[in-house]
Design brief:
By secondary structure, the protein is of the alpha+beta class. 39% of the residues lie in helices and 24% in strands. The longest helix has 24 residues.
Length: 347
């Protein structure tokens, strides 16, 4: 748990325009509501009314504030797109946070609002050009101009900032009992939903990873066969790997697809994200679908990777599933999700 309770992920740091940073910030906004849902799951009324720090808002106020703030953000960006340097309306967030609706309205209403709002928000941002990202608004409270690019970065950070307020509140005390390159084990003093304290509660901090469901122009799925020492045998899996520092899940999936299989595709779509083992692990697995892929790149295996690339037809894939030949349990849901998207199975 970060000792800085007010700024648990640090303060916002401006970044120059780049396609990679654009994707990363858009993904932060896209997944905010889901991350917030996970942060508040199983919290009872007493916990929801607990301030995340002395003198700070309680959890309810934080959730409702995110909805209030990001509605304003969406409107500000729409104004910047359609008007020439409009003056935006500042508001007193602390005054908003103590209005009666913060106690009356359940927090799931604001989370639902964020889910819907960010679909529109992300769709808007995805269509902006580099030039449009430089369009300005005037912020009277700060007495300065702000670009859409700056606004996007601030609100991407802002969502993660407040989610961390809640997750840090849940971790009352943490001691690391083991640290290594690939995972860290910490012992938490954990507050349960009914207010009881469980200590120690062991959590494994693992790297997040990403996988790609690759479909070729011939409508075959691309899988990789490799040795997995934990199981003590070779397994047939989706290509993928861990996210590198500063890398977005989609960029990591594309990189792993090319490095492990040599396939490339310009038709990439997000499937979903899941927690591989929410009881013990803190990481996230991201899954993407690549359509009409072609083997145009050169593979680039890691030092200890020994991979065999295999392709399977729709019928052969279904038979693999029936026979239980695909043993990576976390990947199965993504494969079924992709089959539904591809109309390879009905739902």
């Amino acid at each position: 748990m970060n000792a800085d309770l007010k700024y648990p992920i640090g303060r916002y740091t401006p970044q120059p325009y780049s396609e990679a940073q654009k994707k990363a910030w858009i993904l932060d906004l896209q997944f905010l509501a889901t991350s917030l849902e996970r942060a508040i799951i199983n919290l009872d009324e007493a916990q929801l009314n607990t301030p995340y720090r002395e003198g700070g808002w309680n959890v309810k106020q934080v959730v409702h504030h995110l909805a209030d703030s990001h509605m304003n953000a969406y409107c500000r960006i729409k104004l910047a797109i359609t008007e020439e340097k409009p003056t935006i309306k500042a508001y007193d967030e602390n005054a908003w946070a103590v209005l009666p609706d913060n106690d009356i309205v359940p927090i799931n209403v604001s989370i639902t609002l964020l889910h819907a709002l960010h679909i529109r928000f992300v769709a808007t941002l995805n269509e902006l050009t580099e030039e449009q990202f430089q369009r300005l608004v005037f912020h009277p409270q700060k007495n300065s101009d702000m670009s859409i690019w700056t606004l996007m970065g601030i609100y991407a950070w802002h969502g993660n900032h407040h989610v961390a307020h809640i997750t840090n509140l849940r971790e009352r005390e943490s001691n690391y009992v083991f640290k290594d390159r690939w995972f860290q084990a910490r012992a938490d003093k954990c507050m349960m939903p009914d207010g009881r304290i469980m200590t120690p509660y062991y959590v494994l901090e693992m790297p997040s990873w990403t996988n790609m469901v690759i479909i070729t122009k011939e409508e075959k799925i691309v899988l990789v066969r490799q040795y997995r020492h934990g199981k003590g045998s070779t397994t047939l899996e989706l290509p993928g790997g861990v996210l590198e520092i500063g890398e977005s899940p989609q960029d990591a999936a594309i990189r792993e697809m090319q490095e492990e299989t040599g396939y490339v595709s310009s038709e990439i779509e997000f499937l979903y994200q899941v927690s591989p083992n929410p009881a013990l692990h803190n990481n996230t697995a991201y899954f993407f679908l690549a359509r009409n892929a072609e083997p145009l790149a050169i593979t680039n295996y890691d030092a200890f990777e020994d991979i065999v690339i295999e392709t399977y037809t729709q019928a052969e894939l279904k038979q693999l599933l029936v026979e239980g030949k695909l043993q990576h349990g976390v990947q199965l849901g993504a494969i079924y999700q992709a089959m539904i998207r591809l109309n390879w199975m009905s739902w």
